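ok so I'm stuck.
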Amino acid sequence: MTDGEAGRVPGQDREHRRPATPVRLALRQAPAPPHGPGAVHRRRVHRGPRVHRHLLRDEAEPGGARPGPQLLSEAPARLPRPGPPGTAARTSVTVGILQIQPSEIMKLVLIVALSALWADKGANTGLGRVVLAVALAAVPAGLIYLQPDLGTVLVLVFLAFSIVVVAGARLRWIGLLVALSVGVFVLVLHLGLLHDYQIKRLTAFLDQSSKSTAAYNLQQSRTAVASGGLTGKGLFRGTQTNLDYVPENHTDFIFTVVGEETGFAGSLLLIGLFSFLVWRALRIAMMSKDQFGARLAAGVGAMLAFQLFVNVGMTIGIVPVVGIPLPFVSYGGSSLLTSFCAVGILMNIHMRRFV
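replied:
not stuck anymore, here's the structure
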């Protein structure tokens, strides 16, 4: 059994207890896992130029077949159109019988583009290069925000910030980025650009004892995690999640299933496995002799770490609910394939760390 197949157990649990949707959800998810190990394998063992990380660099660098700005400028035609005001995010496009979420793939595209921007050891780390990095991240982030998908926007912002820091940008420019991010957030709040449900999630985080629906969902999530105790109630035996007291517990709140059914021990094991994966990504980044590979590995590690922290933090109330899946565990084929590709890239970089 692969890690991805093991990670589908909580999602299958969710399907198991929803009589109206199991077949539909299972059919949508089924095409992703068989391709996942193949994606890892191709990026790991194939030594041809088609999967070598230098091909990604050549494609993304200025003057390449598809430079970073061009890669991101092609995104508007591929992204879903925004949904009607007041509705949930519309983040997927239909290709045949499959639904693909381009914003998940955009995470890796942005990592590649920003890594190529600082691929050379002596690359300029001045204001001009930082502004270009911000522009590269702002294009897809703005389009994805219109869907609206605030969670993915935050992931892209964190990825851009992480790679800028790893690239060795000057401290004053990093401080400027932080100030700019805070300023944009305050401006968004002041202009009322957040949707009603996003505002309710934020206020529920600030006042978790309120009687609002958003606060109730968070309270049920925390109750589910706490009720798991040390070893949990057993697979498929969670009451809070089986009885649908916790919303979206097959995607954004999947960690509630883990906490309730496997308890503190299972939750700690899952977090430990993710921490090991993030540590290996950072270790690979430090061992790589190639600057592009180092930036790429660091970006993948940052992506996995941020998504883990926010997804787990949402369920226990230490961060606002923004809608970020847990890699390898949450339901969603695009997220699963993106995670597999990210691991395959890490293995490719490690194999060629002395090249």
